[in-house]
Design a protein that fits this description.
This protein has 81 residues and is mainly α. Helix content is 90%, strand content 0%. The chain has one helix and no strands.
Length: 81
């Protein structure tokens, strides 16, 4: 009886150890997946920031152009021409 208890206890211990190892591997895989997603999101964020800067430069140029055209249109005396 004692031998059976030792055998069953050993099997349970081995099974528990296997479960801990598998859970740790899954946790490590999930962590790697999250890190990859963070890198991907950071790249998307950097790309969006660069595009926003380009658009801001274009907007500034267009605003300057509009201001010049507005000044020309509001010059009723022809002084600015």
């Amino acid at each position: 009886m004692r031998g059976l208890a030792v055998a069953v206890g050993s099997l349970l211990l081995a099974g528990g150890a296997v479960l801990v190892v598998i859970a740790d591997q899954e946790r490590a895989a999930a962590l790697d997946e999250v890190k990859a997603q963070v890198v991907k999101t950071q790249q998307l964020f950097d790309d969006a920031r660069a595009q926003n800067l380009r658009l801001a430069e274009q907007l500034t140029a267009l605003r300057s152009q509009i201001a010049e055209q507005d000044a020309t249109l509001s010059d009723s005396t022809g002084f600015l021409q």
